[in-house]
Write a structure and sequence with these properties.
six-stranded mixed β-sheet, flavoprotein, alpha+beta, D-Amino Acid Oxidase, Chain A, domain 2, p-hydroxybenzoate 3-monooxygenase, globular, eight-stranded mixed β-sheet, 20 strands, FAD/NAD(P)-binding domain, oxidoreductase, 28% strand, EC 1.14.13.2
Length: 390
């Protein structure tokens, strides 16, 4: 087999890259170790920056998003029952975010890829990346018991934190930066109306909580839990009782209790791998970085990586210029670290850390007071939340 760009991973990052390249006539093959149904079953983020929405428009897959997505002009921060709205639209010159689940983004990209007849190989086992430090990289894999080799010009590693792409980089060629947080998020998805028409991030004595949604009839709720908690110990009744204890009274009163359709605990970490290019191998999305979900940046950072990477590859084939390829890692990392900072800051502001002293607790309250009483403070939050420019 032969292609121009081999893409490892059929999540939203890999699918978006494939769609953008295909629309420019650049041949690509996606190799995914799981089934298509499994990829679609992943419950992930749902707040899209305006820049990502524009990328999906560019990829020709935004019709359903504009029809079903919920455009939000703001969101709320709450601290010990006090609630402050961040006016995204008013503080950023008209920018907004759109609530549209990652599963829906992935579905739309899959349908578009099938529509143009581009090749995706699902359930590929034992994927191995070869010779990406030279001029003729290859990817080999086993499908239905047969090992196949795919020759290519470039390899895009979009296969997530646990994927083969980053692990294929020689030891010593990559530097990793990481912070693991001493808690996780217990999340529940339920077919009940949201408690508020915009997201509410709440910090209370009992810990952090988030009221989010996937649609006007489907809610996504989270509470901070210790890392030794087990999902099985949290009945729906216990979860909703704990959620309401952490919310401002008016929001708690509006929570509609209903049976969960998905429940899971996700640990929180901040992680960056540098650099993101190794010869003809590029890392993108969770393969290169992880952010705590507090700032709604994970999926959006993957999209910004794909913005830089797709531009670089298009310039290579269309303009015979490798300037973008040479600067891909530098440009992507400059934006990644800013998003990492915002997500780290939001996490530090709103969560209860076991080791926090009374002084640090007072600092959290003072930080919230500053945001609530300062237009400049609120504007800084808004600017980062809607997404920094590419």
């Amino acid at each position: 087999m032969r292609t121009q760009v081999a893409i490892i991973g059929a999540g939203p990052a890999g699918l978006l890259l494939g769609q953008l390249l295909s629309r420019q006539g650049i041949d690509n093959v996606i190799i995914e170790r799981k089934s298509g149904d499994y990829v679609l079953s992943r419950i992930r983020a749902g707040v899209l920056e305006q820049g990502m929405v524009q990328m999906l428009e560019e990829a020709g897959v935004a019709e359903r998003l504009h029809r079903e997505g919920l455009v939000h002009d703001g969101f709320s921060l709450a601290f010990d029952g006090r609630r402050h709205r961040i006016d995204l639209k008013g503080l950023t010159g008209g920018k907004t975010v759109t609530v549209y689940g990652q599963t829906e983004v992935t579905h739309d990209l899959m349908v578009a890829r099938e529509g143009i007849g581009a090749t995706t190989i699902y359930e590929a086992d034992d994927v191995v990346l070869h010779d990406f430090d030279g001029a003729s990289p290859r990817v080999s894999f086993v499908k239905d018991g047969v090992r196949t080799e795919l020759a290519c010009d470039f390899i895009a590693g979009c296969d997530g934190f646990h994927g083969v792409s980053r692990r294929s980089v020689p030891e010593g060629a990559i530097q990793e930066f990481e912070r693991v947080y001493p808690f996780g998020w217990l999340g529940v998805l339920a077919d009940v109306p949201p408690a508020a028409h915009e997201l509410v991030y709440a910090s209370a004595e009992r810990g952090f909580a988030l009221c989010s949604m996937r649609s006007a009839t489907r809610s996504r709720y989270y509470v901070q839990v210790s890392l030794d908690e087990e999902v099985e110990d949290w009945s729906d009744e216990r979860f909703f009782d704990e959620l309401r204890r952490r919310l401002p009274e008016d929001v708690a009163a509006a929570v509609t209790v209903g049976p969960s359709i998905e429940k899971s605990i996700a640990p929180l970490r901040s992680f960056v791998a540098e650099p993101m290019r190794f010869g003809r191998l590029f890392l993108a999305g969770d393969a290169a970085h992880i952010v705590p979900p507090t700032g709604a940046k994970g999926l959006n950072l993957a999209a910004s990586d794909i913005h830089y990477l797709s531009q670089s590859l298009i310039e290579h084939y269309r303009d015979r210029s490798d300037t973008g390829i040479a600067t891909y890692s530098q440009r992507a990392l400059a934006r990644i670290w800013k998003a990492e900072r915002f997500s780290w800051w939001m996490t530090g502001l709103l969560h209860k850390f076991p080791a926090n002293t009374p002084f640090e607790q007072r600092m959290q309250r003072a930080e919230f007071d500053h945001i609530a009483n300062s237009t400049v403070g609120s504007a800084g939050v808004a600017e980062n939340y809607v997404g920094l420019p590419y």
